[in-house]
Amino acid sequence: MRPTVVTADQFYCDPSALRSLYLHDPRSRAMGAWRASCSGALPVTKFVAAEMANAFALGEFRGDIGATEHHAIAAHFHADFAVGRLSHADLLWRRALERAAELSRVHTAVLGTRALDGLHVASALELGARTFVTYDTRQAALAKAVGLKPLAP
């Protein structure tokens, strides 16, 4: 029997998880081990890339990293696209926004999700992801409610 190959394109990583691959935190080791278990490129939308740029800059603003480290981490993130660890994932933003609005109408009153939580989950659905990688409990609850498998490595 062949071993199951886990490919990264089956997953949607929200910034709460993806940032742990670049900015050291208590979850970085587990996230790194999980990432090493998946072959191929993780799909990253322009929205996630923008949130990652913001996370790196916030790290500097909060004093967690210096300016030099901020720029090195950002360069590492961009290099991961060039070497195939990450891939640019395009989606139809109008459909993703419409789906996010529908998720808000149906789930926010119960789950307390924010609009951006809905946009991440809607993006995952639009991309055909099966597993939603996140450390955000509200996003995980929403992902589960719409049939995605939440994962917090």
Give a written overview of the molecule.
This protein is mainly alpha-helical. It has a single domain (about 10-150), classed as 3-Layer(aba) Sandwich (Rossmann fold). It is built from 7 helices and 5 strands, in the order βααβααβααβαβ. Helix 6 (about 115-125) crosses helix 7. It is globular, with a radius of gyration of 16 Å. The two termini are about 25 Å apart.
Q: What is the gist of this entry?
A:
The chain has 7 helices and 5 strands; from the N terminus they run βααβααβααβαβ. It is mostly helical and about 150 residues long. Helix 3 packs antiparallel against helix 4 and helix 6 crosses helix 7.
Helical percentage: 55-70%
Shape: globular
What's the name of the CATH homologous superfamily?
A: 5'-nuclease
The overall average pLDDT, rounded, is: 94
- How many β-strand runs? 5
- Give the quaternary arrangement of the chains: single chain
> What profile does the largest beta sheet have?
3 strands, parallel
Structural class: mainly alpha
**Poorly predicted spans:** none
Strand-helix topology:
Layout: E1 11-13, H1 15-18, H2 28-36, E2 42-44, H3 46-61, H4 67-82, E3 86-88, H5 93-111, H6 115-127, E4 131-133, H7 137-145, E5 149-151
Helix pairs in contact: 3-4, 5-6, 6-7
Keywords:
56% helix, three-stranded parallel beta sheet, Rossmann fold, 153 residues, single chain, two-stranded parallel sheet, mainly alpha
